[in-house]
C-alpha cells in the first residue's frame, strides 16, 4: 500500500483540500498522524522537525491549514458541509441557496486533489437543521423533502465541477456517507466493544443513492470513495459516552446521550485515510 508520505512526495501534489463536516473532521486530523506515525501528537502541536511545518491555522483548536515544506505540500480543511451557500436573510433567517455555490467554490480552483463530503447535514430536521428555508432562484421554499434538496444541492456542485475544473490538473474524490449507530434497533454504540459480525441485509443510505445518481450524470471523472458499508460494521469505533471526561455514575447510564455519529482517533478514520493515500 502506498504510504501517505510517499504519495505526498510526488512532485505534482502541492495542495490537498478536504471539504467536510464535523463528523469527517477526524478524517482530516488523522492525516497528520499518518504523515508522522512515530509522533502521535505531531499533528496537534505542529512542531515536529520531521514534517517541517512552516505555516498553520486552526479551527476549534485543531489545524485547518498546514504547509509541509519537506513534501512541498499544503493540506487544508474547508468548512462547507452542504457545499452550496448558506446565508443570513431578513429577520436573521438562515437561507440555504440550492443553486448558489460560487462563494464557497472560489477556494477550490488550482487545487491538485479535492476531497468532498456532504451527507449528514442534509438529513437534519427540526431544530437540528442549519437553515430556516430554501431558496432556488427567487423562489422561497419552506418545506421540501430533504433528499430532493440534497439532490438539487449536489447537482449545483456537479455543474460547477464540470464547468470549472480540468481533470488533467485536479483530481476530485467524493467520500461517501459515514454511517451512524444511534438507532434503537440494537445497533446503538453504547457499551459496544466489538464490530458487528454480519448484516441480515445491506442498507444503502438514501444520501448515497442520491450521490451516486448525481455522479453518473457528470462529465468530470469523480472518484467515489465508498466507505459506508465497511464502516457500518464498526459500531465499536464511536466516542459513545467517553467523548468527555465524566463520572463513573454517568458512564453507567442508559446510553441515550451516546455520541454514535463521530469517530475516535486513532480508529476508523485511519482506514479511510489509508484508502485515500492509495488513491492519491
TrEMBL record:
It comes from the Eukaryota. Residues 1-33 form the signal peptide. Residues 66-278 form the Trichome birefringence-like C-terminal domain. It holds the Pfam family PC-Esterase. Keywords: Signal. One of its GO terms (cellular component) is Golgi apparatus. GO terms for molecular function: O-acetyltransferase activity. Belongs to the PC-esterase family. TBL subfamily. This is Trichome birefringence-like C-terminal domain-containing protein. It comes from Glycine max (Soybean).
